[in-house]
Amino acid sequence: MLNIPLWQCYLVNCDPIWHHFYHLVLINKNSRSSIKKIYLWRKNLIIARNLDTVVVGAGFAGMYCLYKQIQDGFNAEIFEKADDVGGTWYWNKYPGARCDIESMDYSYSFSEELQQEWNWKEKYGTQPEILEYARFVSKKFNLREKINFKTSIVKARFINNKWMIETDNNIKIECKYLVLATGNLSTPNTPNIEGLSNFKGRIYHTGAWPEKMPEFEGRKVGIIGTGSSGVQSIPVISETAQKLLVFQRTANFSLPARHCELAENKRENYKKNYKKYRELAQNSSFGIAKYQPPTKSAFDVNEVERDEIYESAWQEGGQAMLFAFTDLLTNKEANETAANFVRKKIREIVKNKETAEKLCPNDHPIGTKRLCLDSNYFETYNKENVSLIDISNNPIQKFTEKGLVTNNMEYEFDDLVFATGFDAMTGAVNAIEISNEENVSLKSVWSKGPKTYLGIMVSDFPNLFMITGPQSPGVKSQMILSIEQHVNFIHDLIIHKKNNKYLQVNANNDKQNEWVNHNNEVANSTLYPLAHSWYNGDNIVGKTRNFMPYVGGVANYKNICDEKIKNDYEGFEFL
Questions:
Q1: What is the pLDDT of residues 482-511, one digit of tens each?
Q2: pTM of the entire structure?
Q3: CB 3.0-4.6 Å disulfide test: which of 9, 229, 487, 534 passes with 206?
């Protein structure tokens, strides 16, 4: 029998929508407006619920969205497949995982009290510290009671001005608004290579790392991928592994992070001046306070002075080098001056000349892929227990019981680590079966590449919102800054709809096409499309090549959004 404290139960006749189901209506004694229906079908239990807003994902985007909704009296809940908050920082527990944005920037700005209470310990937040921060936020603002953990949204259809939603554990939900806070990097990509099931050893993916850290001491480890997660995990795994085999398809540019503990005086100075730093971030290109727009071209100085500027940036660490000159991401020749400087550094660090050349990227301009930040990554290849296997011209042929075969040679190892990234920006959205009133699926609409209006809405999918979706700065910015700006925009749009008693808000199709074209024009004015990267979807077999992030800068993007609001939400249609 159901144990339901504080609820009155009523047996109601068979509901015609749910044929053959009897249901109980549960009315909370303390709040008669909260009604739940429990449908009984033999031994199965299906719960139907009414909400104003369903938020998918309990990362930083989902938590802030929930906070805003609760503050304004909306009946909102989060549905999260993990058993805790944190989003990408819950799943990415791999060795060495840390943010590539300095921790004082990579944090919420919406609460001054929160800014002053929390003390970051390190220059770049580590995965455990960032997860601890997420938990702190959820507790401080009493968010956990509104989060449904271990629950995935699997289906959503818009019918009669409402979203009808189903979860993987048989919960049915009706809501007015569906907000996708699913994250840009949350769907791990595992290459489809013959014979993977034959491998008898342990298999891990950096994007879905187990709760308990595996021990690699005395073991032979093979790792595939040298993007951000590979660059961060390879030095750490090499510390204990008997042998580490790194399989590299594409060499990537990586700059030293110069990671360290965060000095107390620096942290306190930042706290005292947070307002100034937040404003600087909002008015920058990438949402990072310290990186303001440069004023000189790479060719406004001579070679000696230019290399001195690069050297200073290299010693400073982080992404400073990309902000040295105005034209590094728009002019091939200018970009090559920075690329050559980094290649020279790699050759100086890596003792084996052949290995050094393999590690020097030559197939894309620096900065046009997600720039990696590392702690002794290139130095790791000087260790006797680390070997680099270049598979750029000899792809992996198959897995065997003991390892893998490439170039007709078998490499044996005990453990296999995939550091192969994500189905970025669209993977988590497409994992949900989303359809509109005409029963047209979002996945089919996006079959030749995603189209959005401002990265926030998709035409013909009313009352559906995305936080940092395709064609928004998202991954090309300080993510939490973009999250806050998006959530604020979406929330104000919902309030506008509610106050005017509209039933629907939708993105105008012509305005959406204009925005997608603008996004592509901005991208094509830069060097970004020259790289084969997840920005284009190139890492996913069968995914249509389509440049997804907006690279016009967070300040420009916010100004555009603000202008839309001033023009009575231009591009949005209300019914």
A1: 999 999 999 999 999 999 999 999 999 999
A2: 0.91
A3: 229
